[in-house]
Specification:
By secondary structure, the protein is of the alpha+beta class. The chain contains three helices and six strands, in the order ββββββααα. 40% of the residues lie in helices and 27% in strands. Strand 1 and strand 2 form a beta hairpin. It comes from Allocoleopsis franciscana PCC 7113.
Length: 132
């Protein structure tokens, strides 16, 4: 098929793709339709719900695991328990320090604007933070 784009002529060379007609179909706006699948794509493995030593798992579909805080502590690569605890304590201290710095900056801006209500709220927030 000859085509043209902005005055440049070219030939359409779309590859021939083998498809198979699926079982799913229906009618949409009066027209019949069927789903089509590429012939060369393998069918996915069946999903099975299994259990091993009391732990349930599924086959045939990848599972995306979201690590929890306790799991992160136990699975940091290359760390022994004591080193992990030191690292997590340092991270906690750094996090609290960043929160305190942000709170102090917000208090300075509120005082500069003369917003006494906000200053009182920020002072209450400061009281809820753990001591250093």
């Amino acid at each position: 098929m000859k085509l043209s784009y902005r005055g440049v002529n070219y030939e359409n060379s779309s590859p021939m793709i083998e498809v198979i007609e699926g079982d799913i179909g229906g009618t949409y706006r009066g027209q019949n339709w069927r789903s089509h699948y590429l012939r060369h794509i393998p069918e996915p493995a069946p999903v099975h719900d299994l259990k091993y030593r009391g732990v349930a798992y599924r086959t045939g579909k990848p599972v995306v695991a979201v690590p929890s805080a306790t799991a992160a502590r136990c699975t940091l690569p290359g760390f022994h328990k004591r080193e992990r605890e030191k690292e997590l304590n340092q991270l906690t201290r750094t996090h609290l320090s960043n929160i305190r710095n942000s709170l102090e900056r917000r208090m300075q801006v509120a005082k500069a604007k003369g917003d006494e209500k906000l200053v009182r709220l920020l002072e209450q927030e400061r009281m809820t933070l753990p001591l250093q």
